Amino acid sequence: MNAALSDAQLAELVALFERGQVAVLTGAGMSTDSGIPDYRGAGTPPRAPMNIAQFTDDPHYRRRFWAGARIGQNRMSAVEPNAGHRALARLEAAGRIEGVITQNVDGLHRAGGSGTVVELHGGGGVMRCIQCGERWTRTEVLGWFDTLNPGYAERNADAEIAPDGDALVSEVETVRVPLCPGCGGTLRPDVVYFGETVPVDVFAAAASLVERSSALLVAGSSLAVNTGMRLVHKTERQGNPLAVINRGPTAVDQRPSLAVRIDGGTSETLTALADALGA
């Protein structure tokens, strides 16, 4: 169990804001208190997230994805923003941060009240056709799955939920995959898979937030993904400090630019920070 946030640590976080607005980058650890498991957090078993080559080239992986997405939807629909999401929304409303950059695809920052959210890896609530580019909501497409696979969701309702919000199901070989109703093309989530790159305009929006800020606060990320490290490097080139709130080690723990390091949860820490700043 992590130690409680000390007064000295809180004071260090507050001091980051004395120079101006702070950029915020969040990762999977931000959503663990909402019930979504983390890929790399302390104590989590190793997992291999699906990459884009598997999704496009292997029908088995596509069946597994759609099966897991349908079962996971039952539980994800009940997931709500936690205190950490709400604290960041409070900081934005108070003008302490301009918005949030997130590696998450769960949509919880917007649901928690944040107005400006740069989703580096896209949003899991939208599906698009690879061939024609048409888009639908996740809920709409999963309704098509139910029509194609009657009774499937009920039979697999107890499957374990993976860190991406989908379920780990074993009954996949008979699954019928929904296709684009317009052109019959392959449907996929409108997210950045492993093996893909963040769209140039999306990264530019994130970089712009960093450029206009006086520090970078990382919350709930081990910074194992290259995009996050690019923002760290940008912060360092500007001569600005880093702060990290995360359970377990991160890729920047030994960097000279790290001014504040809190080994703890994002919900309690960000709530205390928002309170201390009068947000």
UniProtKB/TrEMBL annotation:
Phylogenetic placement of the source organism: Bacteria, Bacillati, Actinomycetota, Actinomycetes, Micrococcales
Binding residue positions for Zn(2+): C129, C132, C180, C183
UniProt entry keywords in alphabetical sequence: Acyltransferase, Metal-binding, NAD, Transferase, Zinc
Active site: H121 (proton acceptor)
Gene3D superfamilies linked: SIR2/SIRT2 'Small Domain, TPP-binding domain
Residues annotated as domain Deacetylase sirtuin-type: 1-279
EC number annotated for this UniProt entry: 2.3.1.286
GO MF terms held by the record: NAD-dependent protein lysine deacetylase activity
Stretches of the chain forming a coiled coil according to its record: none
Protein name per the record: protein acetyllysine N-acetyltransferase
InterPro entries given in the database record: DHS-like_NAD/FAD-binding_dom, NAD-dep_sirtuin_deacylases, Sirtuin, Sirtuin_cat_small_dom_sf, Ssirtuin_cat_dom
One Pfam entry name: SIR2
Domain of life: Bacteria
